[in-house]
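Suppose you are handed a protein chain with no further information: no name, no annotation, nothing but its sequence. What can you learn? This example shows the usual starting point.
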Amino acid sequence: MSDEPLRSTEIDALMRALSPDDPSHPVIEPTTTVMPATGAAEGAAGPGVAGNDHAGNDHAGNDGSNDDDDTSPSATPRKRKKSSALTEWVIVIAVAVSAALMVRAFVLQQFAVSGYSMINTLHDGDRVLVNKLSYRLHDPRRGDVVVLKTIEGAGERDLIKRVVALPGETIEYRSCRLLIDGRELVEPYLDPAVVTPTACGSDQPELTIPDDSVFVMGDNRGGSKDSRALGPIVYDDLIGRAFVVIWPSADWQWL
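A reasonable first move is to predict its three-dimensional structure. Written in structure tokens, the prediction is:
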């Protein structure tokens, strides 16, 4: 081929040869490429992305608030639980102490035996439980072991005795024999080794027991300061009825 530039006539001939009307040449349909509207797509996608970012930011904000909720309120329930538990213990202790005081004041009381006036039923140092409700529910009964209030002329060791005579009865004690309305009273609780003809204490002339009073004596008749010296005991001076020895364990018994 010549290096000379093509003339216009040659160019025209070449164009006619390449014309689509020429059956020797296939027709190539032009390809149309549709370009996306970048700006519109970005505009359309932008709000979505921005919305997602915004949602993500909101989510992150929620996470932050959740973290705060998980951290700060969690300490508060722990403090509340501790204070609640402490309050419950204070209430339990207060109720227990109050109940114990109420029981001691109105129901049961422990009493330590001092002395030997109730040998061999009770010994020095024995501890008994006293029912303080007994004589609010019924009158004293013969044979009850009772605890007395402090009585003028009686020492601490003389505050626990046995009821032997009731209101309206006539009592007489002589020669170690206890007579109620002229009949001898059988007393199985006395220890024959302790109460002997030579160790039965002072006599008691005939005496009628006044209303709301009882006559009390110690089981150790020769070593007890009781109604023979103090006279009948009014109900108001009775603290209650001793019903069981609780200590020492070797002396445990119902009274």
